[in-house]
Write a structure and sequence with these properties.
Length: 161
Amino acid sequence: MTAVEQAASPAEMRRVLGSFATGVTVVTGIGLAGPVGFSCQSFASVSLDPPLVLFCPAHTSRSWPLIRDAGKFCVNVLAEDQEDLCARFATTGSDKFAELAWHETAWGPSLDGVLSTVMCDVEAVHPAGDHDIVIGHVRELVLHREAAPLVFYRGTFGLEL
């Protein structure tokens, strides 16, 4: 068999890798026309020294090119009571910031009520399949509150089996 014949299908990837629970974030930035953002579950710490994180936006994202062009972003870590915020930022074509409480930082919008905000400069972008791997150099961190995180597991929120 060739490597192509052995490759996992997208459905199999979702089914099997869905058994890995992830936190949920909203990545935000400022585009030419104002604030932009998208929901993102592929976020991780990379290095403590220097302080680096990563996230992986899809090539189809409309917000990511605007954030990339700005060269900086915020990662807003969602709490378990913020499924609605995740859904808002997973929607295409709407004004995601309309009637939403947030405050501006030098790196983009920090959403009110989230667990924490990680403010970064874009360090590097690596194309990888249908996504980019974005490495962010952490410039500022804020822990806003202590609460349980929003967890995505087996295609849904929470850890119900």
